[in-house]
Every structure is written in structure tokens, then in C-alpha cells.
């Protein structure tokens, strides 16, 4: 493999890890050795295919990072906090998609379509990737910010079950819980009387604070994460968007709602700008922005939905309207796959940017 950098992928057996291996096999091959690591004792010792080669899954140890140039972490906050500093001590640049380092002032938060230069300033040798909800909208909103100057964002996020781990930290616990709930309510007349869905679901709510089948839940993340009534996820969208755009004073509020969708987040966005904006000009900006697909013709039934964009990489934008009472405001509807751009893809893109710098 010549002098190409060595990559370690930590967390290869989870949902995001499996998608990351697809990207590493499909993208231009910039890596020498790719080392697969997993903390789960039952998974380490197995084999997975990457770049068409059967590759062993090694246990997560300090020695596993010896000779590694870039370590891509696709694991829980707890594991990233424990092992990312170990990888750095062993000489690796860490690219981390957990929430642990995102708001650290010494760790750049990078979206390659918007702030690729930030990857080079990493005093802790760690680069962070934003959360899946932020990534669902920020490529599109960053493009509009550059064109018109964002002044304020009001966001409602409709989030899929695939972004939610189980109560015990189990990967895809939200998906398993939703599927179980759907099996309990399918073929019934539930949803017609107060509390009938809750009684039918019983203890099968899983990681959700209320039944998700035949329902929406106006809360995401752990209930103990609230601050003044705001969920940790809502505050994260605010803080991460400000950091990526380099706009620390940007006015932004978010309301996060859990919806009975397996994979792909949706967002309704009210965006106010410094200058007047038209739908035609916004269409031009969005249609020519990398990582964005404009899909906006409601008269023909063309607008993004999570069921249609799941399994794709771009941010899909539709329902672009100028606010009826403000010529400097737009309304938009945005969808993005939380396991792809919202999970694996952005982190892989960052790792590839680091590899280009090291090569």
C-alpha cells in the first residue's frame, strides 16, 4: 500500500460502522492498511469485508493503535471518552462522531462541504463530527448562509428511531422497540381512544418516554438531559450549528420530536436572513451546492420524505417558500439519512481530508 496512511475504524459492528465500511469500499482508496477494531468481546475475533478483502475484527486495546495514522471512532460517548485519548497518545489523529468532543474549543467541528479548512487546526489531535440532527440540515443551511447571511433559525426536527440506542446502550435499540410496538398495534383499531395505544404497548416503550407507534413524542434523548425544559438534543443542534458556521451569536431554537420512522430525519426550518431572498434565488443556491439535492415541485407531488431519501447520501430540500410576512425569511422542509451523512459519511469524509493532509 506504499506510504498511504493507516486507518483504524473503531466500532465496526454497529449500524453506523457497517455503513462506514461501505463508504471505505466505494470511495477512492486513500488508505494503506485498514484495521478494524471493536470493543464488544463477542464481535472481536470475527471477520468483515472491506475493500473486497476479508479483514479480521481485532479487540480494542492500546496496542491496536500502534502504527495507526488516523483513528475513526464510531462508538458511544463512553467509549470515545475512554479510548480516543489512548489513540492520540499512540500517535493517531482521531476523528470522532460521538458527542464527547464536539463543543471542546480545542477540537474542530467539521462538515467538509462547509468548513474543510478547520480540520487542520486540531491542537488535541482530535476532529469531531456533528450529531445526526445537525447534519440533516446544516449543509443546506450553510449554503444559504453564505448567500444571504443567516440571522435566525427556528427548527422542528422529526427524528427517526435509528438514531436512538436502547436503554442499555444497545445499538439500534430504538428501531427494535419501534418494530415491536408496530407489531402490537398492527391490524387493530387502536389510536381512537385516550390511552389505548399506551395500554397496548405497555412496557415495550424501550428507549422512548412514550409509545412511538401511532404516535409522535415531543422529546428526544434522555429525560435527565433537560435544562430549563430544553432537551440535550435541542441544545446540541443550537451549539453545533453555531460552531460549524462560525456564528457564535446566531439566534437558533430547535424542537426535537421523535416520529415512527425507521431511518432518516426530517426538519421543518424557518430561516431569517440579513438580506431579502427569493425562492428562485434560493433554488439556484441549493441546486448548485455540493451535498444538496433540491426536490421541490409540490404540484407534481415532488418533495422529500424520509421513506424516499433513506439509503441516500445528500441532504434533500423541498417546500421552499418565502415567508408571507417577511421578504427576508424562507420556510423549508429537509430530509437526510441519519446513518449515512448524519452518521458515517461525514466522519469518513473528515478522515479522508486528514489522510490527504498526511499523504
TrEMBL record:
Enzyme Commission number(s) of this protein: 1.2.1.11
GO molecular function, one term: NAD binding
Active site: 132 (acyl-thioester intermediate), 265 (proton acceptor)
Family, as annotated: Belongs to the aspartate-semialdehyde dehydrogenase family.
Listed SUPFAM superfamilies: Glyceraldehyde-3-phosphate dehydrogenase-like, C-terminal domain (SSF55347), NAD(P)-binding Rossmann-fold domains (SSF51735)
Annotated protein name in UniProt: Aspartate-semialdehyde dehydrogenase
Record-annotated Semialdehyde dehydrogenase NAD-binding domain positions: 6-122
UniProt keyword list: Oxidoreductase
One of the GO biological process terms: amino acid biosynthetic process
Superkingdom of source: Bacteria
UniProt cross-references to NCBIfam families, sorted A to Z: PRK14874.1 (NF011456)
InterPro entries in the record: NAD(P)-bd_dom_sf, Semialdehyde_DH_NAD-bd, Semialdhyde_DH_dimer_dom
Keyword Oxidoreductase carried by entry: yes
Amino acid at each position: 500500500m506504499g506510504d498511504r496512511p493507516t486507518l483504524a475504524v473503531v466500532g465496526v459492528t454497529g449500524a453506523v460502522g457497517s455503513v462506514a465500511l461501505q463508504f471505505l469500499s466505494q470511495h477512492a482508496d486513500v488508505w494503506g492498511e485498514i484495521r478494524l477494531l471493536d470493543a464488544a468481546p463477542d464481535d472481536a475475533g470475527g471477520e468483515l469485508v472491506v475493500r473486497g478483502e476479508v479483514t479480521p475484527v481485532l479487540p480494542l486495546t492500546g496496542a491496536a493503535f500502534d502504527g495507526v495514522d488516523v483513528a475513526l471512532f464510531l462508538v458511544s460517548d463512553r467509549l470515545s471518552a475512554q479510548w480516543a485519548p489512548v489513540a492520540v497518545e499512540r500517535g493517531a489523529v482521531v476523528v470522532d462522531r460521538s458527542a464527547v468532543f464536539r463543543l471542546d474549543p480545542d477540537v474542530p467541528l467539521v462538515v467538509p462541504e462547509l468548513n474543510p479548512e478547520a480540520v487542520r487546526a486540531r491542537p488535541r489531535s482530535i476532529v469531531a463530527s456533528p450529531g445526526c440532527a445537525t447534519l440533516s440540515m446544516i449543509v443546506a443551511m450553510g449554503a444559504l448562509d453564505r448567500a444571504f447571511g443567516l440571522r435566525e433559525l427556528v427548527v422542528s426536527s422529526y427524528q427517526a428511531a435509528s438514531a436512538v440506542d436502547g436503554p442499555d446502550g444497545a445499538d439500534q435499540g430504538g428501531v427494535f422497540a419501534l418494530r415491536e410496538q408496530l407489531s402490537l398495534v398492527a391490524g387493530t383499531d387502536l389510536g381512537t381512544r385516550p390511552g389505548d395505544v399506551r395500554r397496548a404497548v405497555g412496557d415495550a416503550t424501550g428507549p422512548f418516554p412514550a409509545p412511538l407507534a401511532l404516535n409522535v413524542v415531543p422529546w428526544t434523548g434522555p429525560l435527565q438531559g433537560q435544562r430549563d425544559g430544553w432537551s440535550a438534543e435541542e441544545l446540541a443542534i443550537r451549539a453545533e450549528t453555531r460552531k460549524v458556521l462560525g456564528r457564535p451569536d446566531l439566534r437558533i431554537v430547535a424542537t426535537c420530536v421523535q416520529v415512527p420512522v425507521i431511518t432518516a430525519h426530517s426538519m421543518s426550518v424557518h430561516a431569517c436572513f440579513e438580506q431579502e431572498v427569493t425562492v428562485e434565488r434560493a433554488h439556484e443556491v441549493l441546486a448548485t451546492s455540493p451535498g444538496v439535492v433540491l426536490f421541490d415541485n409540490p404540484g407534481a407531488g415532488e418533495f422529500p420524505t424520509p421513506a424516499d431519501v433513506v439509503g441516500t447520501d445528500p441532504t434533500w430540500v423541498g417546500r421552499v417558500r418565502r415567508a408571507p410576512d417577511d421578504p427576508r425569511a424562507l420556510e423549508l422542509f429537509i430530509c437526510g439519512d441519519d446513518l449515512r451523512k448524519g452518521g458515517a459519511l461525514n466522519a469518513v469524509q473528515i478522515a479522508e481530508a486528514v489522510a490527504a493532509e498526511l499523504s
